[in-house]
Amino acid sequence: MTSIDYASSFMTFAAFQLIFGKLFTFYSIKKVFVASVAIFEVGSLICATAPTSIAFIIGRACAGLGSAGINAGGSAILAMSLFFHPPPKSKQSSFTYREMFNQMDIPGTAVLIPGVICLLLVLQWGGPVYPWRSTPIICLLVGLGVTATTFVTLQMRKKDMSTIPPRIIKQRSVACSTAYVFCAGGALNVFQYFLPIWFQAIQGIKAFDSGTRILPTTLGTVLFSFVAGFGVAKTGYYTPFMIVGAALQLIGASLSTTFHVSSPATQWVIYQLIFGAGAGLGIQQAHTAAQTVLAAADVPTGAVILIFAQIMGGTIWLSVAQNILTSQLLHGLKDSVPSLNSQMILDMGATELRGLVGAQNLDGVLVVYNHGITRVFCCAVALSAAALIAAAGMEWKSIKKTR
Q1: More confident residue, 73 or 185
Q2: Given 11, 271, 339, 354, which is the most exposed site by the fewest CB atoms within 10 A?
Q3: How far apart are CA 137 and CA 262, in angstroms?
Q4: CA distances for 337 relative to 53, 118, 147, angstroms
């Protein structure tokens, strides 16, 4: 799958998260959710039977649109099931169809979609494909600035009828939760994406084996999400779990910056468990916080705002981290092993590293690669620290008082 194929799905997935929040607020949750599943199935069918790459890209975009509704709807249904009774039908039926259509904020969505596309293209093309000062990148940045300014202006003017209602995003816990998932989710994506590359490049293992070696992160995340859920159910408070979670992510990411070429298994297993435990404790509780402080009718909108922030955080910081690694490798290889073609090493990837550089240059290349990836982990350190600050700003409210 090429980057264009992936981007076609992600663009619709990210851009339509917020509009689905409005759909789930003003229309039948069941009908919108079933329609989203149907759209996803149609997109998957198009991909499976696509005779050309263009048809495959269209199928991916359609599947991304459906998955946006599934993702947003799943969060809304879960929130209603755990924290609230579903809003009475009379409350939704008090709006006419024209009023509900006006609530969809079509102009805001129309501006948001090209803005997201510009952002993703800048992050994918800037540096590796086009120089940052090239005409395509400058045009995309200008387009991003114009769409972002227009979108913010529309949100401020439309107020409660906007895609991101200022009344909701200005709520202290929602604002801090949004910042938390943007940073903590971004740190998790960076860690999970680049750690397998470290295994492939430094330890010389295959891609499948590198995937199995990040199981400690996954295990820690899953297990401690249950621990956090049980703890919040008992105590009623989610804020301490977010604070401890961000702190553990910060510790795990900081320790990972000390990786070296001969790091033993005990080191990378323990560091992963610490980082994964932090992600499991904190990230889901940010969603719980928004569901707790918002009124029942605002929960779908609040849920998709957090989902959108988490998705965009992961995407933005993965691209930033990739640029950090690329820059470190290009400069480091040029200084340490000038006889090698640095760009060729980047193009070949981590799994082909040993066969490309030869035994006489391998040690120097591994040192440069290790340094580059540990600098990437510094990005996860900074994001985890920012998440800790966001967690410290959370309100201390009990979920038991909302039931």
Answers
A1: 185
A2: 339
A3: 40
A4: 40, 37, 44
Secondary structure letter of residue 163 according to DSSP: S
Q: Which domains does the chain have, with CATH numbers?
A: 3-166 (no CATH), 172-401 (1.20.1250.20)
Supply 227's token pair.
């621990």
CB 301 within 8 A of CB 178: no
- DSSP states of 124-151: HHBTTTB-TTSHHHHHHHHHHHHHHHHH
Mean pLDDT value across the chain:
83
**Residue 265 near residue 167 (C-beta atoms within 8 A):** no
Determine which of 123-127, 141-145, 215-219, 399-403 has the lowest per-residue pLDDT on average.
399-403
Mind listing the pLDDT tens digit for each residue in 292-311? 888 877 877 788 888 888 88
CA atoms of 259 and 265, how far apart (whole Å): 11
Tokens 């989610």 locate to 238
State how far the alpha carbon of 304 is from the alpha carbons of 57, 176, 291, 298, in Å.
25, 15, 11, 10
Distance CA 170, CA 187 (A): 24
The pair of structure tokens assigned to 32 is 């919108």
Question: Is 171:294 a contact under the CB 8 Å cutoff?
Answer: yes
CA atoms within 13 A on the CB side of 119: 22
What pTM was computed for the model? 0.81
Beta bridge partners of 126: 130
Rounded CA separation 188/195 (Å): 11
Angle of the 17-26 helix axis to the 29-49 helix axis, nearest 10: 140
Sequence-separated (6 or more) residues with CB below 8 Å from residue 359: none
What is the distance between the alpha carbons of residues 90 and 99, in angstroms, rounded to a whole number?
A: 15
And the tokens for 349? 């990837």
Integer-rounded Cα radius of gyration of the chain: 22
